Structure formats: structure tokens, C-alpha cells
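Researcher: We're teaching a course module on how sequence relates to structure. For the next exercise, students receive a sequence and then see the predicted structure as C-alpha cells, so they can try to spot secondary structure elements on their own. Here is the exercise chain.
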Amino acid sequence: MQERPKDQHHSGDDEGERLRALQMLLFSVFTAMTGLGVVSPIMPNYATSMGATGIWLGLIYSGFSFTRAVLQTPIGRLADRRSKKKILCIGLGVYALVSLLYIYASSPLHLVAIRLVHGVGSAMVMPVAMAYAVELTPKGKEGRYMGYMSTAMFTGFGAGPLLGGYIYDWFSLSAVFYSMTALISVSLLLTLIFVPEERNIRRVRRPTVPFTKILSNRRLLGAMIYRIINALGRGSIMGFLALFAVQTLGISYSLVGTILAVGIFANSFLQTPFGILADKYNRVLLIVIGSILSSFGYFYLAKTTGALDLMMARLVISVGS
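Model: And here is the predicted structure for the students to work with:
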């Protein structure tokens, strides 16, 4: 009878430790995503200044996603066997190093190589951070804290373009990459100092599901195919948005960053209310409506003649997404 309060006390301490670790992990992810988003307004024009054509621009953007897609599963398995914190810190270190390498690039080929390495770092950061957050989350609160993680990612990635555009207009191109390095270095230090090793906390154990079993679920497979096709369409357009805004519409980098940020922030803030709608109404119907709305946004994008038009098209795409 006398030991129960003691056990409850230890259980409370353990949950409090996990929550503190989660809070620092969320802030670290927010800082890292801000650093990653800083280069969004200037990257396409930076590449074209080196003579990059449409094909090179496609390679520069897809190189990052290619290495991340190929490596995130084996790196995730390695993190499960070894240490998520170590893999996360190595990935952030790669991010910081790559941020400096952008300054010394002198050809489209250099940018492709740097983006490939950048994708390796990304495979070590976001999937591992998400998996670590799942382990730290108390049972029964997974939805809430995964929502917090998504918010940290979206708001960080939204703040990045806003910051990057103004840094470029007020200072220089190099200052954008130095700020990217500084932000990611802060994220690395926060993770090293404040996020504990898994062995130092009582982890919440959850069963693992083989990927082949996931693919055998027709609904999940359909959702995956939809996401792949959707990402292909969006990526083929959004990668050139900053280039179109600056070179065709004559918009400043700070305004381009603002337009990109507004779209990402809108997407972030609408996650929760549309999630509630998805719980109440037919999800397939909502996906169809959202896809049609996004299609109108992309069509409107091709007809834009100024910053306000571009902003409205970006908002329509974000609401549909």
C-alpha cells in the first residue's frame, strides 16, 4: 500500500521527462526547418545565374528528394538499432556543412552534387525525428503530439522563405546561406544538449508493422499512389515558382519569400480544422474536392500578372492541399 505513491511519482517524473524531451525536439525541428526553408526564394535564380536550364533545375530539385527517398528507410532501420539521437545529430551536421558548400558552388553540376548530399542529411533528420517523437509521446496522446510536430515542421518551413527573402534583399546571397548554417547549428546544439538518449528514458514500446503488410492494405496503397502523383505534379510546378516570380513578374525576393510563406502558413493552420472535417464527412469526397480546388489554383497560377494574383493562386493551392 505504501509503495503505490512512489510508483506513481516515478511514473509522473518519467512522463514529465519525456514531455520536456519532446518540447526540445519540436523546437529543434522548427529551427532546422526554418534553416532549410531559408533558401527557397533564391535557389532557382541562384541556379540559373550559373547557367542552369530547365533540365538542370529539375535535377537540382529532384536530387534532394531522390537521395532522401532512397535512404530514409535503411537509415530509419539503422536508427532503430543504434541511436536515434546520434543519427539525428549527424544529419543536422550534414545540413550545416552543406549550407556552407552552396556558397562555393560555381556550376549546376556542383549544385546537383550538393543537393544529393543535402538529401542524405534530410533522410537522417525528419524521419528519425518523427520516429523519436512517437517513442517519446505518452500513450493516448499520439494525435496531439504528432499534430504539434507537423505544426513545428510547417511553421518552420514557412518562416524560412520569409526570412530568406528579406536577408537576400537587405544583405547578400552569401548571408542567406550563412543564416541557414547558423539556424541549423542552433538546432544541432539544442539536440545535443537537451534531447536525451533513448536509453536514458523509459520509452513507450509500440509494435512494428512490416512495409509489405502496409502495401497489402488497398486503402493505404491507394493513398500512397495518390500522394506520389500529387507530389510529382506539385513539384514540377512549385520548383519553378520563385524563378517565374522574379524573372517573369519582376517581384522582389522578399515578396517572393512572403508569398511562399503565406502558402505554407495557410497549409499549416488549416491542418487541424480540415482534420476535424475529415473525421465528420466522407474523406474520399474531401480529397476529390481538395484536388479540384488545387487544380484551379494551378490554372490560375499560369494566368497571374502580378504579386497579388500570385498570392491568391498560392492560397487557393494551399487550401486545396
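Model: If you want an answer key for the exercise: Residues 1-10 have pLDDT under 50 and may be disordered. The radius of gyration is 21 Å.
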